[in-house]
Design a protein that fits this description.
With about 325 residues, this protein is α/β, with parallel strands linked by helices. Helix content is about 25%, strand content about 15%. Helix 2 links the parallel strand 3 and strand 4. The longest helix has 11 residues.
């Protein structure tokens, strides 16, 4: 039986449990979280009713830490997970559960690689998974991991809004060193390709911009305005900054409360997208630097009721792929004068 390396609790706020072999079960959950975004209070209540016990045959609520930092940031997700986490949480490494054959960072893993990761995390197909970020950044990378679970068909996925508030509101945390947890079998899923935009598809949208008869697909870019306009450099050395023709710049921070770093209320999100000229009736592709914060925008669109799961996609390669593959002769990288 394979094992997962997690951390031994040091000063945890909840009692420590042993980790014998888990049993599989497909019993209806005793606690259903009502919406995709959940509050700290809702998660705390759900964990009391369906704790992530390895000996329970019933579906559990599993906190899944997705903490991640940009490559020019000295902090590491695994380090902040060690320092402070929700008790019994697992850690999803966004730098490792990827397509390792791709030259671009964070590209979606194969179904087999995804299943192996879920298995090693000890997550069962019938578990409810609540993904959360670091307290340092607030909402940042958790939506990307939540989206990944969803498009690989995990039935019950939510995002905590957010861990910063969880800590500030006094909900339990733990820290500590390593221990090993036995994994669970996880079936190899199918990827829902309809939710993912490829370079070729985005290129076609960009080339069709302002052409008569074009479908009118909207591209929303979540990068900071300086990188979008071309005035500031990209954090990855050698990449040109700028933007795709016709794209709309909505930095991902615009959909977050500046103090709590949690998602804004639905009505405020709706107003923001309206002011930016986003048409809720037209298809939308979200993009960013490497496909991480694009999903912050995609999640905000879902909350605001803009588009549907059938009309929203995320450009997986995002600007890192675009800036390396776009042909200069096609004028597909624009900069503001």
């Amino acid at each position: 039986m394979a094992t997962l390396t997690i951390f031994r609790s040091a000063g945890a706020s909840l009692p420590r449990q042993s980790f014998p072999k888990c049993q599989m079960g497909f019993i209806h959950s005793r606690r259903n979280l009502s919406s995709y975004l959940v509050t700290p209070k809702e998660l705390a209540e759900a964990l009391k009713k369906s704790p992530p016990s390895p000996i329970s045959p019933e579906p559990r609520v599993i906190p899944l830490c997705a903490a991640w930092f940009l490559p020019n940031d000295e902090r590491k997700g695994i380090e902040v997970f060690r320092e402070k986490r929700i008790p019994k949480a697992r850690f999803f490494d966004l730098d490792k559960v990827i397509d390792k054959r791709s030259p671009y960072p964070h590209m979606l893993p194969s179904p087999k690689t995804f299943a192996e990761a879920m298995s090693s995390l000890g997550i069962r197909k019938d578990d409810t998974v609540v993904v959360y970020d670091s307290k340092e950044l607030g909402i940042f990378s958790a939506p990307r991991v939540g989206w990944t679970l969803r498009i690989f068909g995990h039935p019950k996925v939510h995002v905590l809004n957010n861990f910063k508030l969880w800590v500030e509101e006094g909900y339990p945390t733990e820290s500590g060193e390593l221990y090993s947890v036995e994994c669970n079998p996880y079936p190899i899923p199918q990827l829902d390709e309809s939710k993912v935009a490829t370079f070729e598809q985005v290129r076609e949208v960009a080339l069709d911009h302002n052409k008569e008869g074009a479908e009118g697909v909207q591209i929303i870019d979540a990068r900071p305005n300086g990188r979008f306009t071309g005035k500031d450099p990209e954090p990855r050395e050698g990449l040109s900054s700028g933007h795709m023709p016709g794209s709309i710049n909505i930095p991902f921070t615009a959909v977050l409360d500046p103090k709590t770093r949690a998602f804004l209320p639905k009505e405020q999100l709706k107003k923001l997208f309206e002011e930016k000229g986003v048409d809720p009736a037209k298809p939308i592709i979200s993009t960013c630097g490497t496909g991480v914060t694009a999903v912050v925008i995609d999640t905000a669109l879902e909350e605001a009721g803009f588009g549907t799961p059938e009309t929203r996609r995320v450009y997986d390669g995002s600007w890192t792929e675009w800036a390396q593959r776009a042909n200069p002769s096609d004028s597909l990288i624009r900069k503001d004068e």
